[in-house]
């Protein structure tokens, strides 16, 4: 697989909601290419007929009755918010 | 130094039940020890003397009323990614520096229901991403056996605290070796239980299909005691297993007649430190002397485990860590003009380099056009790695596998921080177990020429923790390196 470029990395950073300085990006590009280069060794294995595993043990959906149960009070739920008003999270203006 | 801080849980239990000592006295001895050595070891992010005092009072009342449980009055340290109601839980990250959980993790509720005593919250690599605890945003924990060296990671604080006599036992978490590798480097017992054995509710998520909470202790008996206390089904974690919890202490019997121990040839490769190889071979001899038969086996896909892990774990992490958006809890930047900038500045200020690196790898691997080449491919190789283990346990008839934990003893602080890939490769022997969801532990087995502890890794089939503990107990009897207190300098 071709090396990842600084431009591609900038795109990935936007997707991940991260921002980097030019120096940081240059440093990360080298390190990420080392890591992706190592990961590329998986291409050696033929996996055409192998089913993927997402969980080591069989997991199935767990259902429960749709009942109201005790939950955290509003004031505790918002207690850690950086900005809070009348029991609601305050966010920057979007529209 | 108070002799109390050298006792394992089992000894403290009998002193408590004979009324020779009170929970408050035990807690006080440990708090004094923390004050004396933690400025050097740096295992604790937060010490909680008020909580300990309160917990000790509750324990005292239970003892008085005869309502005791195995952990009543036993002090414990908790890795700082397990939510503790009312006590800040930082994940060793600036992002959660002031986060005070409004609820307990299920394991904390279980410990509290037994009357255990919390001493404080232990240092770790930020969000459990690392193998040396050097990625903590707050401080670098030292290995009590040689304070110029790392304690291992990510549960480095949990292992160092037990080794230094700053708690008799602790809880850690293991996503790719984060309990076993620091346990080996610090000379304590550390177990990663089967995926689903212990509830993950209230464990701050890193890679949800791999994470598991487990005990770090002075000896194998304590490991059995603490494992039993935290195991069991939890309706709040839909991946927790609805299976009965055995009395793990009953598994600790001398002698291994009839047990088949597999030794996978792929774990004895070039790059394995000669001291580690010698100690591990000794460990295999101990198992044989206790009656086990030894069989060489093959796990052919071992060499692909690290590459597989470094797709799956970052992919899951990039998704899990998207919750840190500066809105609901945690850090929010002051430096923004609009919503997008608020997210970007918050996350860039709040996360350290290793966390950002893994979010970037994960986001890249999951991004449009790359999903099949990376994530799907890794999930398929994961199947092959699981099938390797299935074969040795179900067809070859092995009960446990014996391997090294890490390729070298504890390395020096700063030795690997410049080269992330080298750091990742130090987890080569522990990662396959997480991908397959198996239980495994590290038991102290010997020392290097530089007097650094080296553990033996034992791996068993799903939910065979009893077999694992039995084998480890016999290694402990032969090796005699459990429960040693290094001189801290």
Task: Describe, in plain words, how this protein is organized in 3D.
The complex is a heterodimer of chains A (95) and B (489). Chain A is mainly alpha-helical and 95 residues long. Chain A has a domain of 37 residues: Histone, subunit A (Orthogonal Bundle), CATH 1.10.20. Chain A has three helices and two strands; from the N terminus they run H-H-H-E-E. In chain A, strands 1-2 form a two-stranded antiparallel ribbon. Chain A is flat, with a radius of gyration of 23 Å. In chain A, 16% of the residues are buried. The mean pLDDT of chain A is 92. With 489 residues, chain B is α/β, with parallel strands linked by helices. Chain B has a domain of 249 residues: Alpha-Beta Complex (Amidase signature (AS) enzymes). Helix content of chain B is 39%, strand content 12%. Chain B contains 15 helices and eleven strands. Chain B has an eleven-stranded mixed sheet with strand order 1-3-2-4-6-5-10-11-9-7-8, sandwiched between helices. In chain B, helix 7 packs antiparallel against helix 15. At the A-B interface, helix 1 and helix 2 of A face helix 9, helix 10, helix 11, helix 12 and helix 13 of B.
Q: What's the rounded overall pLDDT mean of chain B?
A: 97
Widest β-sheet, arrangement of strands of chain A: 1-2
Helix content of chain B: 25-40%
Order of helices and strands of chain B: HHEHEHEHEHEEHEHEHHHHEHHEEH
Summary tags:
heterodimer; A: 95 residues; mainly alpha; Histone, subunit A; 3 helices; 4% strand; B: 489 residues; alpha/beta; Amidase signature (AS) enzymes; eleven-stranded mixed beta sheet; 11 strands; 12% strand
Spell out the blueprint of helices and strands.
The complex is a heterodimer of chains A (95) and B (489).
Chain A: H1 6-15, H2 22-39, H3 74-77, E1 84-85, E2 88-89
Chain B: H1 9-17, H2 23-41, E1 44-47, H3 49-65, E2 75-79, H4 106-114, E3 117-122, H5 156-163, E4 169-173, H6 180-186, E5 189-192, E6 213-217, H7 220-230, E7 260-264, H8 274-289, E8 293-297, H9 305-320, H10 339-350, H11 353-366, H12 372-395, E9 400-404, H13 420-425, H14 431-436, E10 440-447, E11 453-460, H15 465-479
Parallel strand pairs in B: 2-3, 2-4, 7-8, 7-9
Antiparallel strand pairs in B: 1-3, 4-6, 5-6, 5-10, 9-11, 10-11
Helix pairs in contact in B: 2-3, 5-6, 7-15, 9-11, 9-12
């Amino acid at each position: 697989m071709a090396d990842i470029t600084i431009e591609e990395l900038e795109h990935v950073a936007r997707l991940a909601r991260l921002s980097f300085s030019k120096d940081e990006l240059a440093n990360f590009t080298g390190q990420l290419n080392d890591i992706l280069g190592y990961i590329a060794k998986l291409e050696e294995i033929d996996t055409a007929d192998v089913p993927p595993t997402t969980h080591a043990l069989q997991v199935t959906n767990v259902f429960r009755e749709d009942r109201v149960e005790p939950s955290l009070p509003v004031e505790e739920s918002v207690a850690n918010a950086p900005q809070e008003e009348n029991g609601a999270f305050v966010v920057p203006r979007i529209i | 130094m108070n002799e109390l801080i050298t006792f394992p849980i089992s000894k403290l239990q009998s002193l408590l039940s004979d009324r020779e000592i009170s929970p408050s006295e035990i807690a006080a001895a440990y708090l004094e020890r923390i004050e004396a050595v933690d400025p050097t070891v740096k295992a604790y992010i937060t010490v909680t003397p008020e909580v300990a005092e309160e917990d000790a009072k509750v324990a005292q009342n239970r003892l008085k009323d005869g309502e005791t449980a195995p952990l009543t009055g036993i002090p414990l340290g908790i890795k700082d990614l397990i939510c503790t109601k009312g006590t800040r839980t930082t994940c060793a990250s600036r992002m959660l520096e002031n986060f005070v959980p409004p609820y307990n993790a299920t394991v904390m509720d279980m410990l509290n229901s037994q009357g255990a005593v919390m001493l404080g919250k232990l240092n770790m690599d930020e969000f459990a991403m690392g193998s040396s605890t050097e990625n903590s945003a707050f401080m670098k924990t030292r290995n009590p056996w040689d304070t110029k060296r790392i304690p291992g990671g990510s549960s480095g604080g949990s292992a160092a605290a037990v080794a230094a006599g700053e708690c008799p036992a602790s809880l850690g978490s293991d996503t790719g070796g984060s309990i076993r590798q620091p346990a080996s480097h610090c000379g304590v017992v550390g177990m990663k239980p089967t995926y689903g054995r212990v509830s993950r509710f209230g464990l701050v998520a890193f890679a949800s299909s791999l994470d598991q909470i487990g005990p770090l202790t002075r000896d194998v008996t304590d490991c059995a005691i603490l494992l039993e206390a935290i195991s069991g089904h939890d309706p709040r974690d839909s991946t927790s297993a609805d299976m009965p919890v055995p009395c793990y202490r009953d598994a600790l019997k001398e002698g291994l007649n009839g047990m088949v121990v597999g030794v996978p040839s792929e774990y004895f490769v070039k790059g394995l430190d000669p001291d580690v190889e010698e100690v591990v071979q000794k460990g295999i001899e101990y198992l044989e002397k206790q009656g086990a038969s030894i069989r060489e086996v093959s796990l052919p896909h071992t060499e692909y485990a690290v590459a597989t892990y470094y797709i799956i774990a970052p992919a899951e992490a990039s998704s899990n860590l998207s919750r840190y958006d500066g809105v609901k809890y945690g850090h929010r930047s002051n430096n923004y003009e609009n919503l997008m900038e608020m997210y970007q500045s918050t996350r860039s200020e709040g996360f350290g380099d290793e966390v950002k690196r893994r979010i970037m790898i994960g986001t890249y691997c999951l991004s449009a056009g790359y999903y099949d080449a990376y994530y799907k491919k890794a999930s398929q190789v994961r199947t092959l790695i699981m099938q390797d283990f299935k074969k040795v346990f179900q067809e070859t008839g092995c009960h446990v596998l014996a391997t090294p934990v890490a390729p070298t003893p504890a390395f020096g602080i700063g030795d690997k921080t410049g080269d992330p890939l080298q750091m990742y490769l130090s987890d080569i022997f522990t990662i396959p177990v997480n991908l397959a969801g198996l239980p495994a532990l590290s038991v102290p087995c010997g020392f290097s020429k530089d007097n650094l502890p080296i553990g033996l890794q034992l791996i068993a089939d799903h939910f065979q923790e009893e077999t694992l503990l039995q084998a480890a107990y016999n290694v402990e009897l032969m090796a005699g390196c459990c429960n040693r207190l290094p001189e801290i300098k």
